[in-house]
Amino acid sequence: MDQSIGQFIGQFGIRSIPVSSCCIQIASVLRSKVSFPGTSSYEATQESYWSIQEASLYPSCIVVPDTAQDVSEAVKILAGFPDCQFAIKGHSHMPASGFANINGGVTIDMTTLSSVTINNDHTVVSIGSGAQWLNVYTYLDTLDLSVAGGRNGLVGVGGLTLGGGISYFAPRVGWACDNVANFEIVLASGELTNANATSLPDLFRALKGGMNNFGIVTRFDLTPFPQGEILAGVIANPISDRDAVFTAFSNIAGSEEYDPYASLVTGLGYNSSVKGSWSIGTTAVYTKPESSPAIYAEFVAIPSTQNTLHLTNLSTFADETNTPPLNWQFFTGTYGVSANLMSRIFDSLNSTLYNLELPSSWVFWDIAFEPLPTIMTQYGDKNGGNSLGTSPKDGNAFVMLLSALWPNSTFDEVVQETAEKMTRDIACIADDMGLLHEFQYINYADPSQDPIGSYGVQNVEYLRQVSRKHDPKGVWQRQVPGGFKLGLKY
Question: Taking the complete model, does pTM exceed 0.90, yes or no?
Fold first, then answer.
């Protein structure tokens, strides 16, 4: 080791985790932007993870770049060490272990790249890939503008957009990724470049759904639109009225004339510490400043235990309280719209969870249903296209997010097995009814699922071709093990 580098590394009091050669080389270039175990900056990143599964991994070093050029320098070095694996961290709201952190390798924490700016004629919003959506909405609300982004303001811009992205504005403008005008990206060679409809258009399309398979996006340029106040809030109902809620949801989600300003998420909640303890509620948003839109009249007519619908702005409504670190589990599926299917899903869930015993601990289960209407998927062929494979020919559908959160890691295996069983049982029910869709939303998927495969054979092959072209050595496939990979061999 070079003596000066050794002295630089030594000042951090490294302990327990071996320092890899690639960490030493990156530190020789980026100096204080590289942190090691035992330092406050290293621990700050480790403590920022949303899930215990991710926080339980310990990289040899953590790189916190200040600029896109810093990312470029780090990737150039990493690509020269084929045995050095690394992970890319935004705000890590995909909870699976290894998706945004790594044991013994290098974690690149992008959250310092969080600037939000707009051009002079207000046609392009430029967002650092480490920003949270709340940063974006707070900035744009003052300009009476918005963009398609995450509904929870604490979610990161990077992960949500690269996975597609469902927003409150989805019926009006499509997936969040459909609204990207340009990606600033660091390729496997370390080159910092731009991908858009005229420059690297193949990569531009691949990034819209392709996640971390092609490079590290350092900036997203999004197309804004005029936006004032919205109607937003939660309607909670007695679980005994669930069938009425399912009918109201289905009447909106399955409508041939879907209201482009309507967005809703109907959720079932179950607390394992109280047997049979179910709740049901709907987060409803109307992206026009109307206090009583007709589209929600059926929901409002159902007896409720809470109704907080009110006019507000997006930055206020999206400013949610973060949860403490917990174990998290995600599974997903997509199905044709049917109130009967939703009722049968509830019965299936109840049968499994009622008999689940977890002594001395608890698990909270949340099953969310979100419309995927054709008015939203019609944007998939516009603005250079996307890679998701969703299309109006699939008909109106809804996406399910089955999630679990629990404090005691002792029960990781039983929660995983239970979640897998429930997802499998729901798929069987939907298949029997002719309502099972192939698409799996990647931002809600478990590592055991195959969301990229659900994009369809042609899209998968397209993604592989783009990968071979822009990453011939397979840096993103071999050295970045986290996330959903393309299945390429090298």
Answer: yes
